[in-house]
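Notebook entry, structure prediction.
Reason for the run: the old model in the group folder had no record of what sequence produced it. Starting over properly, with the input documented here first.
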Amino acid sequence: MTSSDASITTPTPTGAGTAVVHLAVDGMHCGSCSALIEETLADQAGVTTASVDLDAARAVVEYDPARLDVGGIQAAIADAGYAATPVG
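New structure, fully documented this time:
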């Protein structure tokens, strides 16, 4: 996905100064994979909460759009060795 593709996805505002993005995550094989992604996201400045569902191959991330964008979230997941694509 290019950086221009990320602008197509509109994060859902929560009304509390944060937004939520839902991502399909490719490459997870076990609980350690999903835990690594959650830890990676939790370490990102601007991420409020991150939940990864191994069985559904999805991540839900609440974040501060003033500090981080969807592309930054995808880049963090890519740095951990996985691919993430916004859904919904």
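Summary: The beta strands are 12-13, 19-26, 47-53, 58-63, 83-86.
The old model has been moved to the deprecated folder.
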